[in-house]
Specification:
Layout lengths: L3 E3 L8 H16 L8 E3 L1 H9 L4 H4 L15 H17 L4 H14 L3 E10 L17 E4 L2 H13 L4 H10 L6 E9 L3 E9 L3 E8 L3 H4 L6 E6 L5 E5 L5 E5 L11 E5 L2 H4 L6 H18 L4 E8 L2 E9 L7 E5 L1 E4 L2 E8 L15 E4 L15 E4 L7 H9 L3 E3 L4 H4 L5 E5 L4 E4 L4 H16 L26 E6 L5 H4 L7 E5 H9 L4 H6 L3 H19 L4 E4 L27 H6 L2 H15 L5 E5 L5 H13 L10 E5 L4 H11 L3 E4 L1 H9 L17 H17 L2 E4 L3 H4 L4 H7 L3 E4 L4 H25 L1
Parallel strand pairs: 16-17, 17-18, 18-19, 22-23, 22-29, 23-24, 24-25, 25-26, 26-27, 27-28, 28-29
Antiparallel strand pairs: 1-2, 3-4, 3-5, 6-7, 6-12, 7-8, 8-9, 10-11, 12-13, 14-21, 15-19, 16-20, 20-21
Helix pairs in contact: 4-6, 5-6, 15-17, 17-19, 21-23, 25-26
Length: 773
């Protein structure tokens, strides 16, 4: 059969016909490495099959200009077209001579089970395969009989018309005439363990799981990981994975086209052990080092250890021709930094997971504050909805991890286990190589955001006590920081800030609730325990920043954030729900507990803790809260101040009344103020262009609030995202007389310099005006 190539006989000129995957595997096979044998029905068969299809004109047309009139941005239409094309492939017949010859070749390899792997090459001078397009194709398992083989070939070929595949080819401008799709056919035997070898600058990374490697490919297990020193061959580090599921094959159970791949549950005892037998680890290390010398570091090797007899084989070797990542989708960059990692996808119909694997990029439709406790080990976040001030964006900035929001169809386009590059600066997601270079770059940039917190100087209080390492200009406007995570205290306390302008109680408290609603703690008689935890948590911040002020904002949760409270699981999500101080009137229990915690800290000698009330709608709400504050003795400390968030538009009309009632200061929350004045939900990414915090209506409202605060003799701060997203407005804020600006830790340094420049310009302008006068 002229269109069938055995691995041991593939020549360099055969690469376009057998594809890259088969070509590189044949290279090491012919050098004597232990490769699982196989053969390749060539791309010529694929081409002939497509040409002979009934509607071949539409199938082989250049998709961007075809009669399909395909709009890849319309996900529903894309799915429908893809489904139609795949169905046409599946329902077509194959020449019996083809099937017979592939069947006979398969019988030479095994009588159990086969794996069919797509193997591509591109015949276009203007295009090379991106570093990793493995997410577009999946291997197909089939039994060794003619019916199963025929169906398996068609399933493999049909993947070229998957929705994600069509999207990819159209976005990079490749038409089907340029795609050479061959199929690598190999026998599959049951395995003791399987995994991969990846190469980094100073170490080999070995992954392993029980059974066949499909469990890793599908993202159903967290494999064991070993880091091996290149020079010594010793284990530098190893981590036990989470291997609950494994896979085996049994061709005897397959009748005609029935499956021959089966999953099974790994026993509790085995889950506690490493899957890779110790006697094979040294062999894998030796094999990996040899292949590095043969092919270079930019490759990934897949291996398996057969069960009977136990023997190590190489199943795949991926050597990317081009390491240039391919743009997969765009969204809004919500948190700066780049990261290269495996994706973990949560679909629309899936509930919030109890836990998320470590070091992944989480992809989800939307993220609310209740997700916060499970996000600490995530490397990056991508959401389909939300804007720059949505909860997902704020959570990612709190954690200091790169994030993109409003990435349409992300959960459909990206698959669990795919390696992607997330660029939070540009709001872009790329298919990524798993090579050492791109991985290192991603880690380096992501860590850089954290390192920005270190100003390389020591600071006692205010802006005195700087070392000679760096001399910052003096500024008159107070610079504060928004915080919620105690693990950032040590880095942030030495920044040139005058205190904490916003201590987000919701995110802080989620770390100590262990997934339980605070109201349930009280209802179940655990109020004292919760009070102790809350007091201790707040004390960490107060103690670290003394004598600088800490503005503790009391809890501001939505129904969806407290879904377990009194059976309100079905409460509709709403930006205008019972959150903020209105919820305290209905059930003051948790608010009273917060006041007890603040009073306890005052009695312990901490006088730098102030209270800020969230989402205050009316003066009556404020008076209710103020009476509670007096009741719990907080006002006995003459330094204590009670502030409100200025984020509900009614404050523009009621601020004088608030001041008369005892408000000592306001902090302008531009996130909520913007969405309520402009009527745009901040969680709706599609409307993000309308959610403009520089809009004249918003800037007018901010100016009015600053002037009203000045007239009433109270302090005015701003803690929303506006100064961070649009630093150019800081000039106006200072001209209007803002007392302080509070920003995220990563924005402190640039905000400091922006304030300094704005103040210098203001001083210079005043001096020039005086000279002219």
């Amino acid at each position: 059969m002229e269109n069938l190539y055995w691995l041991e006989k593939i020549n360099p000129e055969d690469c376009p016909l057998v594809g890259d995957k088969a070509f590189y595997l044949s290279r090491i096979f012919q050098k004597g490495y232990p490769v699982v044998p196989g053969f390749v029905p060539s791309a010529g068969l694929w081409r002939e099959f497509v040409v002979n299809l009934t509607s071949s004109e539409s199938l082989v047309a250049d998709l961007p200009n075809s009669s399909l009139h395909l709009d890849v941005n319309n996900w529903r239409q894309l799915q429908q077209v893809a489904s139609r094309l795949r169905q046409e492939v599946i329902s077509a017949s194959l020449p019996s001579s083809w099937v017979s010859q592939v069947y006979q070749a398969s019988k030479y390899l095994t009588d159990n089970c086969l794996i069919l792997r797509p193997s591509l090459s591109i015949s276009s001078a203007n295009y090379h395969l991106a570093g990793n397009i493995s997410g577009l194709f999946k291997p197909v398992f089939c039994a060794v009989n003619e019916q199963s083989i025929m169906n398996g070939l068609k399933q493999t070929w049909g993947q070229i018309f998957g929705a994600r595949s069509i999207l990819y080819w159209q976005s990079v401008g490749v038409n089907l005439h340029h795609i050479n799709l061959a199929v690598l056919v190999q026998p599959v035997e049951n395995a003791i363990a399987s995994g991969s070898i990846k190469f980094h600058t100073s170490a080999l990374e070995v992954e392993a799981t029980y059974g066949l490697g499909v469990a890793i490919t599908r993202g159903e297990v967290l494999p064991d990981v070993y880091y091996i020193n290149h020079n010594t061959g010793g284990i530098e580090e190893k981590h036990l994975g989470n291997k609950i599921v494994a896979y085996s094959v049994d061709g005897s159970k397959a009748v005609t086209n029935d499956k021959c791949l089966f999953s099974y549950t790994v026993s509790q005892e085995q889950q506690k052990l490493y899957a890779l037998p110790d006697e094979f680890l040294e062999e894998i290390i030796t094999l990996g080092n040899q292949l590095v010398r043969e092919l270079g570091r930019k490759l990934t090797i897949k291996w398996t250890i057969t069960a009977n007899p136990p023997k190590l084989y190489i199943t795949q070797v991926n050597v990317p021709r081009s390491l240039t990542p391919h743009l997969l989708l765009k969204g809004i960059g919500a948190a700066k930094g780049k990261i290269n990692a495996s994706a973990y996808v949560i679909g629309n119909i899936q509930p919030k997971p109890r836990q998320i694997p470590k070091d992944v990029i989480l992809v989800a439709p939307i993220i609310t504050t209740e997700w916060f406790p499970i996000l600490h080990n995530v490397r990056g976040i991508i959401t389909e909805k939300g804007g720059l001030t949505s909860h997902g964006a704020i959570l990612s900035r709190e954690l200091g991890i790169p994030a993109i929001v409003s990435a349409r169809n992300a959960t459909n386009i990206i698959q669990t286990g795919e390696r992607i590059l997330l660029d939070g600066d540009r709001g872009e997601v790329y298919y990524s190589s798993s090579s050492e270079d791109s991985l290192k770059d991603g880690e380096k940039i992501a860590q850089g955001d954290q390192e920005d917190f270190d100003f390389s100087h020591e600071k006692s209080y205010g802006r005195d006590g700087f070392s000679n390492h760096r001399l910052l200009p003096m500024i008159g406007t107070k610079l504060l920081v928004n915080l919620s995570q105690s693990n950032l205290i040590e880095k942030v306390r030495n920044l040139p800030v005058d205190g904490v302008g916003l201590l987000r109680s919701e995110l802080m408290l989620l770390n100590i609730l262990h997934g339980e609603n605070p109201y349930n703690w009280i209802a179940n008689g655990r109020e004292t325990e919760l009070l102790d935890r809350l007091s201790k948590q707040i004390q960490e911040f107060v103690q670290a920043f003394t004598p600088r002020p800490i503005f503790y904002r009391s809890l501001d949760w939505y129904h969806q954030d407290l879904s377990s409270y009194h059976g309100r699981e079905n409460s509709p999500a709403s930006i205008l729900g019972e959150h903020g101080t209105a919820s305290y009137l209905k059930n003051p229990g948790v608010f009273e507990l917060e006041l007890k915690a603040l009073a306890r800290l005052q009695k312990d000698g901490y006088s730098n803790i102030y209270l800020m009330l969230p989402f205050v709608r009316t003066v009556e709400e404020f008076i209710f809260c103020q009476r509670k504050v007096v009741e719990f003795g907080l006002t006995e400390n003459p330094q204590f101040q009670l502030w409100i968030m200025a984020e509900v538009p009614s404050v523009l009309f009621l601020l004088p009344e608030y001041i008369k009632s005892g408000v000592r200061g306001i902090s302008i929350g531009t996130n909520d103020l913007t969405q309520l004045i402009l009527g745009v939900d901040r969680e709706t990414g599609d409307l993000s262009p309308l959610l403009n915090q520089r809009h004249p209506a918003i800037m007018g409202a901010i100016s009015q609030l600053i002037k009203m605060a000045q007239a009433g003799g109270i302090s005015c701060s701003i803690c929303g995202q506006a100064p961070v997203l649009y630093p150019e407005i800081i000039d106006q804020l200072i001209q209007w007389g803002i007392d302080s600006i509070s920003v995220e830790p990563e924005a402190v340094e640039r905000t400091y310099h922006t304030i300094a420049s704005a103040e210098q310009r203001l001083i210079l302008a005043a001096a020039r005006k005086q000279l002219r006068g």
